[in-house]
Design goal:
single chain; 347 residues; alpha/beta; D-Maltodextrin-Binding Protein, domain 2; ten-stranded mixed beta sheet; 11 helices; 10 strands; disordered N terminus
């Protein structure tokens, strides 16, 4: 009798072990749905830091988020409205942004710890690619009687949000004209209101400010808005001032906004621009950066559909204004496509 029970117990034990083995071989719920031997792609949640909703960065960030989420396996990306490049770099430094759109001049300051980043360098940022020229739009209220940036002396001016890239652009450009709105940088001869693009346009429409600087691709929504109403007028910078700006701050370059680019713009506008770029942290996965870079060019038409300014996001212009080191994932992609990176700084 005892032997019979032992035999039954052993058979039952063998059965249980066989079932466990079968379940183990089947993989259970942890196996990828693609079949045995295939691995699930790693999941990446990517926060793209942009700028205010009235500029070009925000719609471009949304277009990038859609391209990457749809076409790069494992990526779920979303765009975040911010105060612009300086905040974007801060968010990246704090691990709160994975990709940032930013101006090359501000990125140069941050990487090297100079200018507005004196003593507080952010050496962990890397370039991915150049997007398009960021054009400086100097807009004056049509009835204010202003024909030159020099006429801003004693006037009410919106340079951008406090410490935003646009505000720094305004500070640099006005400096060449002998103008200043910063109380800690000498005699104040311009009265400043520090608000975003949409708020600046509203203040101009209400007659509360005389002029504003808006930095963005052509066309920029806030510029379209204020020019279409006839309240604002785009003005050119003088040729000698353009040269002086480019000499003093070498990340600027001359640019012309062709007549008809905006409503009620009947003549070419001569101004300066900087390069907008995509910035990533140095420790971002190399294959991920490679795939994100590749998708930008593979789905260029979708990017342009998000904002017309990105028509200039091409391989031929991918290194324009690239004055911080590139991420290794981007280097790998551009090497495969024969892009000249000889002028780009090394990390």
């Amino acid at each position: 009798m005892l032997n019979r029970y032992r035999k039954t117990f052993v058979l039952a034990l063998v059965f249980v072990l066989a079932m466990v083995t079968l379940v183990g071989c089947s993989g259970g719920s942890s196996e990828p749905s693609g079949g045995e031997g295939e691995e699930k792609p790693q999941e990446w949640r990517i926060n793209i830091a942009t700028a205010t909703t009235g500029g070009a960065y925000y719609p471009i960030g949304n277009a990038l988020a859609q391209i990457w989420s749809k076409n790069v396996p494992g990526v779920r990306a979303a765009a975040q409205a911010t105060a612009g490049t300086p905040q974007n770099i801060e968010l990246m430094q704090n691990g709160e942004a994975d990709v940032a759109i930013g101006q090359n001049g501000i990125a140069y300051y941050a990487y090297n710890g100079t200018g507005t980043y004196e003593g507080k360098a952010v050496p962990m940022i890397r370039g991915m690619l150049a997007l398009y020229p960021n054009v400086m739009h100097m807009i004056v209220r049509t009835d204010a009687g202003l024909s030159s940036t020099a006429d801003l002396k004693g006037k009410r001016f919106v340079p951008g949000q406090v410490a935003s890239a646009t505000e720094i652009n305004s500070r640099e450009i006005l400096q060449v004209y002998g103008l200043n709105y910063m109380s800690d940088q000498g005699e104040v001869n311009v009265n400043a209101d520090f608000v975003g693009y949409n708020e600046a346009v509203d203040l101009m429409k209400d007659g509360h400010v005389d002029a504003t600087m808006i930095a963005g691709g052509v066309p920029t929504a806030a510029v379209m808005d204020v020019l279409s109403t006839g309240v604002g007028t785009l003005i050119s910078l003088e040729e000698d001032k353009i040269q002086a700006i480019c000499d003093k701050f070498p990340w600027y370059f001359p640019i012309t906004v062709p007549a008809g680019s905006y409503p009620n713009q009947d003549e070419d506008i001569h101004t300066v621009a900087v390069s907008n770029m995509l910035i990533v942290p140095e420790d971002m996965d190399e294959d991920l950066v490679y795939n994100l870079t590749k998708a930008v060019y593979d789905y260029h038409d979708d990017l342009v559909a998000g904002h017309q300014a990105t028509k200039d996001t091409t391989l031929e212009q991918s290194m324009d204004g690239m004055i911080i080191p590139l991420h290794p994932g981007a280097i790998k992609y551009f090497e495969e496509h024969g892009v000249d990176m000889s002028g780009v700084p090394k990390a």
